[in-house]
């Protein structure tokens, strides 16, 4: 399967889930975006590295990198390889100079490591086709200072999200998703996209 390269194009505070963030990955050669809801710790780990901040003590991902460097292991790439029930699956492609090994990882952790190793992030067409959102207009700003608001439509269950959009028609959902995209509310657009995907 052909791999499609992704870049981190957005990271914003969740408007609906306390302590959660919306990480937006963008297709390098296209206009599709892949929103992923991640935890606060992983969002902080990604933001700290991108902003080149130096914490007083190593974070977990920094410790992992130090260990791998000490034992001559390099992470060559990260692949988001599957999507099941709204949960993304990722793996690290690692090499010690003698052999290449694939290691399963949470997508948020894999991306936090990818920014530390400056290695590419990939996914497959079927994932972008089912979970990607087409963007028309300006790109997503990297960091947005958005205050969280109460929203009864969303309930977080582990790494998955359930939505209260079941009562809407597909036409209404598509109109709502377009409005969310126009307002650059990618987290809400992702939840509506997930509801539409469940109906296919």
Q: What is the CATH-assigned architecture?
A: Roll
CATH class categorisation: Alpha Beta
Order of helices and strands: EEEHHEEEHEHEEEEHH
Class by SSE composition: alpha+beta
Rounded radius of gyration (Å): 17 Å
Topology at a glance:
Blueprint: E1 3-13, E2 20-27, E3 32-39, H1 40-50, H2 60-70, E4 74-84, E5 87-95, E6 100-106, H3 107-117, E7 121-124, H4 125-131, E8 133-134, E9 143-144, E10 154-157, E11 160-163, H5 170-182, H6 186-198
Helix pairs in contact: 1-3, 2-3, 5-6
Give your account of this protein's structure.
The structure is a single chain. The chain is an alpha+beta fold and 200 residues long. The protein has one domain: Bifunctional nuclease domain, CATH 3.10.690.10. The chain has 6 helices and 11 strands. Strands 1, 2, 3, 4, 5, 6, 7, 8 and 9 form a 9-stranded mixed sheet that branches. Strands 10-11 form a two-stranded antiparallel ribbon. A hairpin with a 2-residue loop joins strand 10 (154-157) and strand 11. Helix 1 packs parallel to helix 3 (107-117), helix 2 (60-70) crosses helix 3 (107-117) and helix 5 (170-182) packs antiparallel against helix 6 (186-198). The longest helix is centred in the last third of the chain and has 13 residues, at 170-182. It starts with a strand and ends with a helix.
